[in-house]
Amino acid sequence: MGIVSEVRALLGAAHVLTGSDTARYGIDTTGRYTAVPLAVVRPGSTAEVSEVMKLAHASNTPVVPVGGNTGLTGATHAPDMLMISLERLDRIREIRPASRLAIVEAGVVLEKLHEAAAEAGLRYPVTFGSRGSCQIGGNLATNAGGSNVLRFGNTRAQCLGLEVVLADGRIVDLMSELHKDNSGYDLRDLFIGSEGTLGIVTAAVLKLVPATRSHATAILGTDDLDAALTLLNEVQEASGGAVEAFEFMPRFYVDQYREMRGDAQLPPAADHEVTVLLELGSASARDAESNGLAEVLEEVLGRALESGLLRDAALAQNEAQRRAMWHLRESAADVILARRPIVDTDVAVPLDRVSTFLDMAGLRVSSIDPQAEVILVSHLGDGNLHYAIWPSREDTALQDELRAVIDDVAVSVRGSFSAEHGVGLTKLGSMERLKDEVALDVMRAVKKALDPENILNPGKLLP
Ligand SMILES: Cc1cc2nc3c(=O)[nH]c(=O)nc-3n(C[C@H](O)[C@H](O)[C@H](O)COP(=O)(O)OP(=O)(O)OC[C@H]3O[C@@H](n4cnc5c(N)ncnc54)[C@H](O)[C@@H]3O)c2cc1C
């Protein structure tokens, strides 16, 4: 029997898709990568994932795990490979308020975890635009970040334990519920961010935090990015570190948003060279009763307007206004990916070098393609810039050159070419050029130890 028939016998025909039934898995969210997989299999338990991997291992069949398929680096591209979808492992096994933790399966959609945590009076703080379809397994495999990293850290920071199926089908139980566990090498952290190349995440223990009882959200306008960063530090000091999001949108992005959505959607104060969405959050009942966060913010913003640090500021007065502010920021993927050709990058730079990076990158781009347009949004609070370019023409060599230049400039200011989306296929060139050679050797040794036949997501992450 071939592998597809074997897996059908194991899981039942309904859970093994082939041909046109695989269409929605065979195209990534950017539309850049399309492929027909050998089959898409949908196991319903960790044991079934393990059995599928044993069959794949025995037949040396390449396997690509897939979650919500919202990744932006082509990391689920699977031509003629077996895709393992985790979508049926979608149970929230437990929410334990006393321990502030959730035990979830890999296929749980991020937003479903948000809702379940909220029902228990708690919060899972990782959030970003694709929360309605991305899955916890995909979040862990990419170590996803998002808008609240500044305060809560990325997905790695939320994870206490993991369950992982290895390339040979063995199940590693790392489902620790502990905040301290120094019993040997940290295998959990090795699997987080490994993009499906070292094992298949089937379940996780995740930390929860107290639910937010009040927000203060504002749009800030200034001409100067450094002024915005000065303000961030002032708000952090005044609020005791309550800033949850500090999201930067330059004028060109806002203009493109307005073109797409119409003027009516644009929140007030969003018409400047530098627009920032700032959000503070508090879990304290006292802050909620006294409107304390808004008071702190109003005071700092008042001073900043007076001193000229800021040109404009608008505080959300209700949830609808807050949502409109977030809509402006969270439309980034729709706005930026709407035009082709596109070069989209995902760099991180130290906060005090963001302006330098932008100046250098702008000069390099215009020297290579003077008609190119740069469109970006940024999780500025953690130094992460989604710096995208709309080149003047369809030309693969030009696109590769532009991508390489942006990644090079980021590294030249002590940044990274891969902040939160992972390496996948799109950043393999930069990985080869820019990653420390010894680090690459160690990664290859780890890969060889865990997946000697290279059947797990081959061709991704490691050049
Ligand atoms: C509108 C939009 C906004 C976004 N905003 C952000 C953002 O702010 N921050 C951010 O970090 N990302 C963002 N992303 C990118 C993406 O949503 C995240 O990377 C997300 O974590 C991917 O999850 P997924 O379930 O869709 O994974 P997939 O796309 O299905 O897979 C991504 C990678 O993880 C692997 N994988 C998936 N599931 C498993 C598993 N169970 N075990 C092992 N490997 C697995 C895949 O093989 C692949 O390598 C955004 C995407 C969109 C479309």
List the helices and strands and how they pair.
Elements: H1 3-11, E1 16-17, E2 39-41, H2 46-59, E3 63-66, E4 82-85, E5 92-96, E6 101-105, H3 110-119, E7 122-123, H4 136-142, H5 149-152, H6 155-158, E8 159-165, E9 171-174, H7 187-191, E10 200-207, E11 209-210, E12 214-222, H8 225-239, E13 243-250, H9 251-261, E14 274-282, H10 285-290, H11 292-307, E15 312-315, H12 319-330, H13 332-337, E16 343-344, E17 347-348, H14 354-368, E18 373-379, E19 384-390, H15 396-412, H16 428-434, H17 437-450
Parallel strand pairs: 2-4, 3-4
Antiparallel strand pairs: 1-2, 5-6, 6-10, 7-11, 8-9, 8-10, 12-14, 12-15, 13-14, 16-19, 17-19, 18-19
Helix pairs in contact: 1-2, 8-11, 14-15
Note down, in words, how this protein is organized.
- By secondary structure, the protein is of the alpha+beta class.
- The chain is built from 17 helices and 19 strands.
- The strands form 5 sheets. It has a 5-stranded antiparallel beta sheet. Strands 1-2-4-3 form a 4-stranded mixed beta sheet.
- A hairpin with a 4-residue loop joins strand 18 and strand 19.
- The chain starts with a helix and ends in a 13-residue tail after the last helix.
- The mean pLDDT is 97.
- Bound molecules: flavin-adenine dinucleotide.
- The site of flavin-adenine dinucleotide has 36 residues, from strand 3, helix 4 and strand 10.
- The site of flavin-adenine dinucleotide (FAD) has 36 residues, from strand 3, helix 4 and strand 10.
